[in-house]
Write a structure and sequence with these properties.
This protein is an alpha/beta fold. The chain has a single domain, classed as Spore Coat Polysaccharide Biosynthesis Protein SpsA, Chain A (Alpha-Beta Complex), CATH 3.90.550.10. The protein is built from seven helices and 13 strands. Strands 1, 2, 3, 4, 6, 7, 8, 9, 10, 11 and 12 form an eleven-stranded mixed β-sheet that branches. Helix 1 crosses helix 4 and helix 5 crosses helix 6. The chain is globular. 41% of the residues are buried.
């Protein structure tokens, strides 16, 4: 079996949630959402996990993670900070947060040399999504520029507690991604779903439209593409306090230039997460239901 890595983006501070969502015990035996993702990844065949974290909670996070997962899968840690930039690059020193998901992925370039998946630490993706993504990565381990993304229906990714941000996907007849555009404040309004597009215009969104929940499959050549795109991004946006260097930014540039393909993978999995603190009771109930049905053991990992 070929080696495959799961890259977990765990550096977010959860400002809207009110704490570190990465370590919040939401499962019936105190499990975190990460516990379920790693359990599903191991079952699917992934052989290594790399965590992207912030320096200020790295040691506490490392102790927690190693006590749970070290006997199940290989583990590595990398850190993401605002000043982790290409040499000679200046930026606005009033900025208080790192540069976004693509910057977080770039932090792992020295520890990943095999096909890898990218997920958020605080999102529940479901077992089937890990299976379909691992099959893709295993079958395309030597294919530079041949990437994938697990597409979830937008209607299954909303929060009852407020608007959310999603990458809205367009695909061709062969289910290859043609573009992904970040939308914000996506929410139900009566019988419709609305959001703000990248220009700030309010639009109506089809409920079955595929969206990126930041579950991607890449080969290691992607790191070089991130580095090139990051220099361009910083030249245009480095002095702004609110600029975000998202994975879709890099992917879109590659698609425009014909340097990559991204297959939109279909899954029966349902996504849920804790964007807001008010989402927590629903997540707790859904995880308990899965445990009661025997879908997952409880506890998922024994300390």
């Amino acid at each position: 079996m070929k080696d495959t890595t799961l890259l977990i983006l765990a550096a977010g501070m959860g400002s809207r949630y009110g704490g570190l969502k990465q370590v919040d015990p939401v499962g019936p035996s105190g499990e975190t959402i990460m516990d379920y993702s790693i359990y599903d990844a191991v079952e699917a065949g992934f052989t290594k996990v790399v965590f992207v974290v912030r320096e200020f909670f790295k040691e506490e996070f490392r102790k927690l993670v190693m006590s749970k997962y070290s006997g199940s899968i290989n583990i590595e840690f990398v850190t993401q900070e605002i000043n982790y930039l290409p040499e000679g690059i200046d930026y606005n020193k009033e900025r208080t947060k790192p540069w976004g998901t693509a910057h977080a992925v770039l932090m792992a370039k020295d520890v990943i040399r095999e096909p890898f998946a990218v997920i958020n630490a605080d999102d529940f993706y479901g077992r089937d999504s890990f299976n379909v993504l691992h099959r893709f990565l295993s079958g395309n381990s030597e294919s530079a520029g041949k990437y994938s993304m697990v597409g979830f229906k937008i209607k299954n990714t909303l929060s009852e507690s407020g608007g959310v941000s999603r990458g809205i996907c367009s695909e061709d007849e062969n289910h290859f991604l043609t573009s992904v555009e970040e939308h914000h404040r996506i929410a139900r309004e009566g019988d419709t779903i609305t959001g703000l597009d990248s220009q700030g215009k309010k639009v109506i969104l089809e409920p079955d439209r595929p969206v990126s929940m930041n579950m991607w499959g890449f080969t290691p050549d992607f790191f070089g593409n991130i580095e090139r795109a990051f220099l361009d991004f910083l030249e245009k946006n480095g002095q702004r306090l609110d600029s975000e260097f998202y994975i879709p930014y890099v992917v879109n540039e590659m698609l425009k230039e014909g340097r990559a393909t991204v297959e939109v993978l279909k899954t029966d999995s349902e996504w849920f997460g804790v964007t807001y603190k008010e989402d927590r009771p629903s997540v707790v109930a859904q995880l308990k239901n899965l445990a009661d049905k025997g879908v997952y053991p409880t506890p998922v990992f024994k300390l």
